[in-house]
Every structure is written in structure tokens, then in C-alpha cells.
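Example with several molecule types.
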Amino acid sequence: MVTMRILLVDDEAAVLRAMDRLFRRRGHQVRTSPSAEDAVALLDSFVPEVVVSDFKMKGMNGVELLRLVAARLPGARRVLLSGFAEVEGSIDAQFLAKPYGADDLLRMCEGVGPGR
Amino acid sequence: MTEDQPAIQSLRSHGKRLTLTLQTFGLALHVTVIASQWGHWSSVAILVSLWLAAAVGNVLIAEFVTLRRGHDRGENLRAAYNIVIHAAIGVVCDWSFASWLFVPFLAGMIGSPEGGQSWPRVVALLVALGGIALVTGARWSDAAICIGISMYLHVVIDAYLDFARKLLRERARMFQDLKAAQQGALAQEKLASVGQLAAGIAHEINNPMCFITANTEALLDDLRDEPALSPRLAEYRDGILADTLDGILRVNSIVGDLRRFARGEPEQPVEFDLSAEVLASVRMARTQVASNQELHTELAATSRIVGMPRQISQAVLNLIVNALHALDPRGGHVWVTMVERDDAVVLAVKDDGAGMSSDTQKQLFQPFFTSKPVGKGLGLGLAVVYGIVQAHHGRIDVDSAPGHGTCFTITLPRLRGHAGAAQPEPARAADRLAS
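Resulting C-alpha cells for the full complex:
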């Protein structure tokens, strides 16, 4: 399996840790960020192939972040996590409803089934 | 309702005043007639007897004919009876002018037959009375004047009464409409606020459930990969964590239902064939149809609509499964029908099962309301159906009575034409709820 550079953005540390462990164990290179603003700053030193972001965060929200990512890194795969569905139609990104299953998250980020 | 109390009291006192006026007027008439016969004591005695007979007769007719054999028959008899009495009064008074005074009074009091007009009855009464009067020696000019005035009074009074009745009926109808609309609006408002609450709770539970689910799954996977576990940890691997995950999945499914009720199901609106989705739901429901139950499908429409096909399919499946549960244990039928009506498509799920009381119907779409025994249902099924129908800009109605089955009707806006057809905007719950 190809390893990828993945950026995870969520203001809930436990969610970040859970996702971090999931992707790290599959051999991906993972960076995490507790806010959209921090994630933007991180983009200077880390060029992700996949960005996974929560929607509702303090400050910049996930939709705004992914729009910015789309502008700076048009090739990056973007996944939005949210408990609210309605943002789905409004952005150019894949959407995953919370609570998500690990299989769905992996499928969206790696682009293939995890084969478990 | 309380604002209506003074109005009703004022109407009642109006009614009392009207009755008093009529009684006073009647008494004055009697006094005038007696005065015209003053000194002729035998005539006075006969007059008093006739009036007593009139009063008793009218009461008896009202009691024994009008109440028991119908208003029309009673009124006809009363008119005939009063002609005889008044003809007798006329004869006793030798058709003096005073004896005619009762005639307009009487004509004004004759009521209309049900659904008809009162004038034929009044004309019959006046012609008969006039005929008897002329034959028994009345002056034709007195008869003509009194009958003319009586006819005029009757027409005026009858027109006013008719107007008042129509006004009252119209007011009662408007009041009923207003009350129904108010109740409907209250119910909608209540459901909307419950929906917001549900969405808020769902969102708050969602976040921790994300990592609880992920962490428990990861822990179980890791324990399975471990070659030599202590017996204690093996117990976790072989049962406890599987039970825990099962509980987590149940919580997640409830949270998912709450979100669907609050119109937050993640699905992009597309144009789709409604009948295909309904048939898919029927196919899924067939697995739950018992051997003594029958599920009939009659889809007379092949409408395309814009919406979320998976949600529609789930709504229909929920309704069919509910209908199957409502059937008598000895067997029963469920019908799924679909028809087009102007710019809407009407989908109905009907059963001949137990039916519901009006109390149950009122609470039907509220989350966590259930009539099923504990453990048989959470009471989210119909709340979810309601949320889905709302998200599609449709409406859901229920028609049911205990022992007479239930019919749920979903009305959805139909796609007309192709280009530029009305698209339901995606529900904006996020705007409302994401604070």
C-alpha cells in the first residue's frame, strides 16, 4: 500500500488521537492540528496529499479551511467530517457524517477499500 | 375561549330582553282585545278559554309532535291549530279590528321548514283565515289590511332571521377553521423545537462517539493480534469488547435516527424515480411479512421527484413495518398505493389492523413516543418519517380509528417539466443549529 501524507484537523483532541492512531498504524505520515488556523500555518512546512477536517470548530470552520486547501493544493484530497449534513452540497469535498466508521474514513482517504 | 365568555353572556341577556318584549307585547294585545269586549262577559270568558286552549295546544304540539315526529309536521299542525283558534276569536269578537291584531303577531312567529321557505305555510294560513273571516261576516277591508301587514311583517322578520342564522353558521365555521389551523401550527412548532433539541443532542453525542467507537474497535483489533493473552484479557477479546461495540453501535444508530428526524441525513438531493424506491422498500419489507399477512402494491404513478432516495425508501419501509406490526395476530392486509394528483404525488400505506385512538394520533410523530411494548421500539420510526417528509417539502397525514385500521398518506411535490424544475433546497438545519 502507498503511504500518504495526511493532515488531520479537529478541535477535539480525543478524535485527533483516534484518527492519528488509525492512519499511523497503516503506515501513513500523519500531522494533526487542533484548529484550522494552525493547519493553515502547518501547510508551509507540510504538504499533505489528504486533509481531513471537522466542520464545526472555533474560528475558521472546516468548509473555509478546505476551500483554502483547494486553492493552495488543488491535487489534495479533501474530507469533511460533520454531524450536520447540510454543508455537504456547499463544498467541493468528500463528506463523512459523524459518527463515522473506520472503514469509511480509510476508504475515503486512501481511495480504496481497507480490505479488512 | 375566555374572550368569548362576555360575548356569550351579552347574547344571553339580549335573548332574555327579546323574550320579555314579545311577552309584554302579547299581553298588551290580550288586554286590548279584552277591553274591546268589556261588558260582554260571556265573550270575555270564551276568549280566555280560547287563549288557554291556544297556550296548552301549542305546548302539546311542541312536546308531542315537533320533538317526536319532526319540525315540519309540528309547524304545519301548529299553523292549522292557530287558524282555528283565531277564527274562533274573530267570530267571538264579531271580527272587530282588535280581533285582527293577533294575526300579524302569529304570522311573524311561523318558522321555516327545514331547508325550505316559510312563506307557502304563511300564505296558506292567511288565505285560510281570510276565507273563514269573510264567510263568517268580517269586513273585507279589515281582512285585506291585516293580511297585507301580516305578510309584510313575516317577510321582513324571516329575512332577518335567515341573515342571522347564516351569519352564525359562517362565524362558527370560521372559528372551527381558525382553531384547526392554530392546533396544527402549535403541533408543528412543538415538533420543530423537539427537532432542534434532538439535533443538538445528536451533535453533542456524535463527537465523543467518534473516538469511543474508533478506540474500542482498535483495542479489540489489537487484542486479537496479540498471540499470548492472559485469561483476563482473553475474556475482553472474546466477549466483553464485542458486547461493548454492540452497545456503541446501538447508541450510534439512535443518534443517527435523531439526526434524520432533525433533517440532517447526509444525502445529496437528486432527481429519481419514486416508484422504484417504493418498490425497493416493499421488497425489503417482504422479509418481515408473516404467512397469514398480505402486502399489496398498487403504484398507479411513475413520478420522478427531487429528493433523497435513500431517505424516502427508509420512510416507506418504516411505515410498512409499522403497518405489519399493527395487524391482528390472526392475519391482515397492508396496501401500498401511489397516485398522481395535479402537482403532487400521493403515497399511502394502509392497513386493516388495530387502528389508533385520537390521543395516540396526536403524539404520533414525537420522538420517543411509542405504543409498542418496552424493548420493541424506541419511538423514533415515525419521528424519522416525519423529518424526512418535511425535508422533502411534503406533508404526512394519518387517518385512523380503533378497530378500523390506519392509513398514512405522504404527499410530495412532483417534478414538472425538466429544465428548471423546482428543486427542494437542501434543508438548512446547519444554519439553524450550528451556533
